[in-house]
Write a structure and sequence with these properties.
Distance between the termini: 51 Å
Structural class: alpha+beta
Strand content: 15-25%
Order of helices and strands: EEEEEEEEEEEHHHHHHEHEHEHEHHEEH
Number of strands: 17
Number of helices: 12
Shape: globular
Largest sheet: 5 strands, antiparallel
Oligomer: single chain
Helix content: 25-40%
């Protein structure tokens, strides 16, 4: 929504809680990964069918289920925007978002609006949070005059080097013309404007908007253009892992360097297979270069040429493969690992948004901050950095309050402080401070400057501090047995020393068994019931 962001006690804006919107909406069955943009089709024979829906998590109400005929896309006419209308929608304040994880971000960057040199203000949509297939953000607006309007987006996409990300842009829940489908946002390290233009004529793709009624603009992550590449890479990973498994079966993992294998006897044409894979990797890279509209190297997928080179070198000397399994599929820098990383990067599609413009003339669009303003702002930031810093113990030095030092990231500290301010009901104020190095606790004790509570420290540290008489024995609190009962008995042992209890666990590590279904399937084995 458009409400102002809440501030913490230091005047910095903080990421708000997401609120669920309870309203009816029509949802077509779609590919959840976002690799296919069209609605999914069912082929049904005449007669009775049973449709079962199971609920995996959360809850929803179902009003009705309908089978619909396939509709062909109907597009609207594009027109020439004329006039001086300009409506600015702040990227950090979407009206709706498809995921609770999509969030605003704050950056000290005078190119962003709003901006303050001294305090953090939420001034963009965080690109990392808006990066998965089918995610969608929606902004509402009204215009004062009927007419054709152009759409501009001020964005930054600096996570995928030399490669674009794609978005479908819906106006009033409809892709108005082909210009608004699969819009590429090129790689850029600075925020810049992207206008929606006609793909043939390069003129602004004006869309007709009526005055007075509420319109919406939605951006939705589109991965469809990467679907065929992703499928090919997936198949290659499976093939490489299967080959590695076959070789391991054959050699029994006995691959010392003085033992020779004639792989062609066991796997005829293995050299040609590897060459075929190398050609596939080359073709994938060429396809990605065509998408990036470049013949230069693509930083985002720079491991593909490395894979191709390694496969060609293996194809020349296939008999060396048993000794090179680490290179093929088992090591950190193996071909299988590189390809799996490429697959992951194909699904990742981040886009940071500063502002969205609904406008009629490019002359009215806001410009970038000039060089001298940027220099002046960085000088201001430099001098402000000498003042009291938020979440620093100097900023929170109120002896009446409970002093808590936390060895975690700033996001944790902001959330803990906010919760303490809102929900800690003992009547005592709480000051949370960032602790970059838990080793400082030993020094603080020597200097007589210790906090009341420390969070996020290693389990071995309480022993060292208790040894020095720096910690309070928790047995002196009357409700300690009640609190201790919350934990499994073994978990509190690291906090015990010399008959006293000096720490309580904050997080638990536990071991997990995971197994490779591909290996079990390859050997026709079922998962043992153990």
């Amino acid at each position: 929504g458009n409400a102002d962001f809440q501030k913490d006690r230091y005047g910095n804006e903080v990421v708000p809680e997401s609120k669920k919107v309870q309203q009816w909406q029509t949802k077509m069955l779609r590919d959840a990964s976002g690799m296919v943009s069209d609605d999914l089709l069912l082929e049904l024979s005449a007669g009775k069918h049973v449709w079962t829906l199971s609920c995996e998590q959360s809850e929803m109400l179902i009003g009705k289920v309908a089978l619909l005929p396939v509709e062909t896309d109907s597009f609207n006419e594009e027109g020439e925007p004329q006039g001086a209308g300009l409506y600015i929608l702040p990227g950090e304040k979407p009206t709706y978002k498809s995921d609770s994880t999509i969030r605003p971000g704050g950056e000290y960057n005078p190119d962003l609006r709003p901006y303050q040199a001294g305090n953090t203000v939420m001034n963009m949509l965080d690109g990392n949070s808006f990066s998965a297939g089918e995610q969608r953000v929606t902004y509402s607006f009204t215009v004062e005059q009927d007419g054709y309007y152009a759409i501009g987006i001020r964005y930054r996409q600096d996570a995928k080097a030399n490669f674009p990300v794609y978005r479908d842009i819906y106006i009033d829940d409809k892709i108005q013309s082909p210009s608004y489908a699969v819009v590429p946002f090129d790689y850029t390290t600075k925020f810049q404007n992207k206008e929606v233009r006609n793909k043939q004529t390069d003129r602004l793709a004006g869309v007709w908007l009526t005055a007075g009624e509420t319109h919406t603009i939605s951006l939705q992550v589109n991965l469809e253009s990467l679907a065929s590449v992703a499928q090919t890479v997936k198949n290659l990973v499976e093939n490489v892992q299967a080959l590695s498994l076959d070789i391991t079966k054959m050699t029994g993992n006995n691959t010392e360097k003085y033992r020779d294998f004639d792989l062609n006897d066991y796997m005829p044409g293995i050299g040609d297979t590897l060459t075929g894979w190398a050609d596939k990797v080359r073709d994938i890279y060429a396809e990605l270069q065509a998408m990036a509209r470049t013949d230069k190297k693509i930083g985002e997928f720079s491991t593909l040429p490395v894979c191709e080179k390694q496969l060609r070198s293996m194809a020349k000397r296939p008999d060396e493969l048993p000794g090179r399994l680490n290179e093929l599929a088992q090591g950190q820098n193996s071909i299988a690992q590189y390809l799996a990383d490429v697959l992951e990067r194909l699904y990742y599609s981040p886009l940071a948004i500063d502002e969205i413009y609904v406008y009629q003339s490019e002359a009215v669009l806001p410009k970038n901050t000039n060089f001298f303003v940027r220099i002046w702002e960085s000088v201001k930031r430099f001098f402000l950095s000498f003042g009291a810093k938020a979440y620093d113990k100097t900023a929170a030095d109120n002896t009446e309050n409970l002093q808590v030092w936390v060895a975690r990231s700033r996001q944790y500290v902001e959330i803990i402080q906010k919760m303490a301010d809102e929900k800690f009901a003992s009547g005592t104020g709480v000051d949370i401070s960032l602790m970059p190095d838990p080793g400082k606790l030993v020094l603080a004790n020597a200097a007589g400057d210790s906090p009341d509570v420390a969070l996020g420290v290693n389990y071995a540290l309480p022993y060292e501090l208790a040894l020095r008489g720096a910690l309070k024995d928790l047995h002196t609190f009357p409700d300690i047995s009640e609190v201790e009962a919350r934990f499994k008995p073994g978990l509190v042992y690291p906090g015990r020393y010399n008959g006293g209890l000096f720490a309580l666990p904050e997080t638990t590590n536990f071991l997990v068994l995971f197994y490779r279904t591909d290996i079990l399937n390859n050997l026709n084995l079922t998962v043992p019931d153990t």
